[in-house]
Amino acid sequence: MRKTCRIEFLPFRSTHSFARGTNLLDAVRKAGLPLKSACGGKGTCGECLVRIEDGEARVRTSAALPEEVRRLGYVLACQTEIEEDLTVELPRFEEQSIRAVAGSRFFEEHRDRISGVFEVAPVVRKIQVTVPAATLSDNSSDLRRLQRQIQKVKGIRCLQTEHRVLKKLAASVREQAGNVTAVLVKTGPGWTLVDLQPSPPPKNLCGLACDIGTTTVVCEIADLEDGRVLSTTTGFNQQLRCGEDVISRIDYARRPGRLQELQTLAVQTVNALTEKSCREAGISTGDIYYVSLAGNTTMTHLLLGLDPRFIREEPYIPTMNLVPVVKAVDLGLNVNPEARVHCAPAVGSYVGGDITAGLLSTPILRDAEKMSLFIDAGTNGELVIGNKDWLATCACSAGPAFEGGGTRCGLPAIDGAIEAVTISKSGDLEYRVIGGGKPKGLCGSGLVDLLAGLFVHGYLDRSGKLDQETAGKRLVRNGEGTGFLVEEGSRSYWGRDLILTEKDITNLIRTKGAIFSACALLLKNIGLTFDRLDAVYIAGGFGQHLNVENAIRIGLLPDLERGKFHYLGNTSLSGAYLVLLSEKNRELVNAIAGKMTYIELNAEPGYMNEYTGSLFLPHTDIGLFPTVKKFLKPGQRLDG
After folding, report:
1. Which has fewest Cβ within 10 Å: 46, 98, 148, 256?
2. Helices in 282-347 by DSSP H: which ranges?
3. Angle at 204 between CA 203 and CA 210, to 5 degrees
């Protein structure tokens, strides 16, 4: 019997050899191909579904799959071992079609909102000087003569010089009659010379801003001399193949060698997007001299290769909150080797740099009168309340339901995802698909619309159970249980029925319940109620196309005057971008982290009561939602 087997992966036409007995999910990862696994390979999420087109494999268990699915050759990769040569079809992973979330370009059009922080005074400078030739009377070293000229022209004293620069210094100052361009980076109280080139100067002096999300990663390249955004690219976080949320990735990192794997995947994700951004901007990766990263605490730990295990163990302590500036070469980032990397600081185990950076691009820090609530409802829901004078924050495990995970029909905001839904009492359903064409599934905003529509028209009771009589012909029962038919297979992209199951609905209610209960408990903890809020700011990709009315109807957002809600775009990316622009902003984001009071919900005795009360539509206390109460029909089932 052969010891190795050949596997062809479709639709990539990629063939690899693996030892007999290799786990199929591990084989996919080793081949560097994308495959989601929310549970980290435990066989519980059902998302590493693949189809064996040719060959036989040993399946440990297939209990998570309906019989009709197994008959078509589908298996869970994490529960399958290679026994012979195989041809395996993987789901398409369309990174190029992810909708870019409004980020710094959005803020270029709204500079009035970030007045006071939008200034271009970066920590990277490009300086042209002429270094006089050495003589017998002036026999100072090449470095000393260069330093004197820089100090003379700009008043900047270089205290440090990188070894890479020293190696080419002698040749550089003797070319072009001593005309050189020096690139300096502010490091602490002084400056460091990181590059030196004979004049004419390098055309580009650029920085990279990066939002490292649990699901998606967004990179922007900015011109550090005028602040212009040159390009923006978005892609899936390649760590998705190791788990869909931070908890599953922390668990994954416990196994030998897996922390290094997660770090490598994070770096590969950033590098791929950086290279694409550089091509679009018409620059070289070597033109990037500063990198500003913003991500939640776990994502930052994994990118830096720090052990994240204690983040999820009581008392929930990260390795560090304030990360020192590091060199790009030490992380393996494909930019100028001497580029400096700044990570936005965290506040606690589940409130990270994506929030501290995000607050830079909100009006909250510039208003001492208004009481504002900031919500970033991503895979990990983070909340901040306060104003210019004080800030309190907490986080909740929202889960990926509104970002494409946790539901059979869920998708990120990619081409083919339904982003908006309207449904009538008679069951007529209209929807809008990103990019047009046949639907592949629903993204977060579409799921909110659908859930609200089903509830408003009586298809769902308040506990999220489908009403058989009302649902009528759209009620579906199969191996996955009861569900609502969103679209028939003949009209869907995949050729199979698009169904929202009751299990999906339960996951959606849990997600919205986690976010609302966290909001309620945060306010209660500081002695406030929702009616005291002057503004609610919604960040992240999920909020970009969110129908606020429908979000209130399902109990995701508080029932307030609709004019109090404001969408801010990708604040994490915008904050990282603002850090690129000036040293002042870098210091400000560090100060934000230091002034925030972190509230650990797991330690709050009232959290479970708040959470349980939120696991209904819109809530067990209908008095919290007066506008929703008004439209409920007398005959609609209101029992929980």
Report:
1. 256
2. 297-304, 328-331
3. 170
3-state secondary structure of 259: helix
User: CB neighbours (10 Å) of residue 192?
Assistant: 18
Q: What secondary structure letter does DSSP report for 369? A: S
Give the per-residue pLDDT at 494: 74
The H or E element spanning position 390 is: none
Instruction: Choose which CATH entry (3.10.50.40, 3.50.30.40, 3.30.420.40, 3.40.50.10260) describes domain 354-400+522-627.
Output: 3.30.420.40
Report residue 440 as tokens: 């592949």
Q: State the Cα–Cα distance between residues 451 and 486, nearest whole angstrom.
A: 11
Q: What is the pLDDT of residues 285-310, one digit of tens each?
A: 999 999 999 999 999 999 999 999 99
CA dihedral of residues 156, 159, 164, 167 (deg, nearest 10)? 90
Strand partners, 128: 181
Q: Say if residues 207 and 292 touch (Cβ distance below 8 Å).
A: yes
| CATH number of the 204-343 domain | 3.30.420.480
| Edge-to-edge strand list for the sheet holding 417-423 | 429-433, 417-423, 441-442
User: Which CATH number does 4-92 carry?
Assistant: 3.10.20.30
Nearest to 499 by CA among 474, 472, 463, 470: 474
The answer to whether domain 4-92 and domain 354-400+522-627 are alike in fold is: no
Q: For residue 454, how many other CB atoms are within 10 A of its CB?
A: 24
Each residue's pLDDT tens digit, 398-438: 777 787 777 888 887 778 899 999 998 777 899 999 989 99
How many angstroms separate the CA atoms of 183 and 287, rounded?
11
Q: For residue 634, with 0-12 CB atoms within 10 Å meaning exposed, 13-18 middle and 19 or more buried, which class applies?
A: exposed
Q: CB–CB of 311/318 below 8 Å?
A: yes
Contact 556, 624 (CB under 8 A): no
Model confidence pLDDT, tens digit, residues 80-104: 999 999 999 887 654 434 554 444 4
Q: What are the residue ranges spanned by the domains of the chain? A: 4-92, 204-343, 354-400+522-627, 401-509
DSSP letter, residue 34: -
Q: What is the pTM of this model?
A: 0.83
